[in-house]
Known about the structure:
Blueprint: E1 10-11, E2 15-24, E3 27-34, E4 40-47, H1 55-67, E5 78-86, E6 89-97, E7 102-103, H2 104-109, H3 116-134, E8 150-152, E9 158-160, H4 189-192, H5 198-214, E10 223-224, E11 227-228, H6 238-247, H7 259-274, E12 303-307, E13 311-316, H8 323-357, H9 359-392, E14 396-401, E15 404-410, E16 416-422, E17 426-435, E18 444-452, E19 456-463, H10 465-479
Antiparallel strand pairs: 1-2, 2-3, 3-4, 4-6, 5-6, 7-8, 8-9, 10-11, 12-13, 13-14, 14-15, 15-16, 17-18, 18-19
Amino acid sequence: MKTIHNPGDTIDDRYRILHPIGQGGTGTTYAAEELEGGRQVAIKVLSLRQIDDWKLLELFEREAAVLATLKHRSIPQYLSFFSLDTPDDRRFYLVQTLVEGRSLADLVATGWRPEETTVYDIALQVLDVLAYLQERVPPVIHRDIKPENLLRRSDGSIALVDFGAVQDVYRQTIAKGSTFVGTIGYMPPEQFQGRVVPASDLYALGATLVFLLCGQAPDQLPHLRMKLDFRSQVNISDRFATWLETMLEPLIEDRFVNAVQAFEAAIDESHHESGDTSDHNPSLNLHHPLRSPATVEPIGPHLEVHQGPNYLAIEVIPERWTWRSQLMRLLCWVWNGVLGVGVVCGGLLILGAILNEGVIAGFFMGVAMSALLLCLPIILGVWLTKQLRSMRGIPTHLDLDADRLRVRQPHVFGSTFAIDCHLANLTRLDVDLVRLPQGKSSLRLVKYTLVSSAKARSFQVLLSAAEQDWLTQVLTEFVA
């Protein structure tokens, strides 16, 4: 293993290297500790001197960008991403929380042979992670599910690591100069052609489960008509073997469509096998906006959540007043007050024209003159009000339940702006940045557009980047 750092090295006066823990196509990963606080972290390092393809840097940056948007108990949490220059090199650092556990590959190499029930539980845990990834917009496809990238903690929980091969990126995992993405034995046929779908990760998971059951790499097992012939190598129930065969179908159309479908099929098989016809299963914990722990843990001071048994209410709280927003507020009051006086004068102007020129001619003459005098002041008054609202944000109330999403915001002129979307009609959620942070502010103005079969409705909120990610995650899962 080519090590860039040695134990005891200090990085950016923030982290101390403890020891290397792995090396992949996009860099070396080290266990480290924070100098302040002593928390242990994992740091992935990429050196420009040690790469011969600029695509790897693009891959590394993409991995950091993807991880920064993810929040799941079975995925290492993104902490920071930065670069440091030396006299002869530039190094990039991706810092994540450290997962305490051993890879499934290491466990099998030391003689671990899990029972069918243990493998089944691992399958459900990984499917839960994949369901979370596939429900994002756009879906995140890992593309390198294998025993080395699945860590088992002491309590039996599974963590998915190494997102260096996420969707639409390049990785040299087979041979130098190759454009394949993935690992031989765990890659579905379509991945050899450079295309992947959510079902591609299911094939890789199925191959990983076969490896756990028989202790052999999938590419060392026999194949029958392009299918992995594992039944003769394992001792498992017929129902579980049939489910695995569906996961490992070479043709995409014969495989499960996504992780949710595979999860539900596995639960159904378990119920049939055990004779349980109830809807309850203790392992069922698919990501859902009304039952996920992440849903009730908003980040930041601008979000407040109220949760009931069948609904979720989210309040978006405006930013506190600053001297700039107070000054803008005073200007709005003064300008709109003067504008109100102007409207009264315009009415008197119309009345005077009517008295002098007659009812019809005077009315039209008075309206025309008032429009010329008040058009620009009214436009400027509305603009000032919108500027004030974009500086502080708009108090927004969102209600989510099993059937619909409701959004309420006070309108510029005091009335209430409302969106009421039925779940059955929603097709997608679009997120656009209207305004990026400026100066010392970390807040961004974000536009959410709910697209239904009938029309698209939009609303805007002012949030920090973390708050935006959280709200986007909740709304995306609801729409998905």
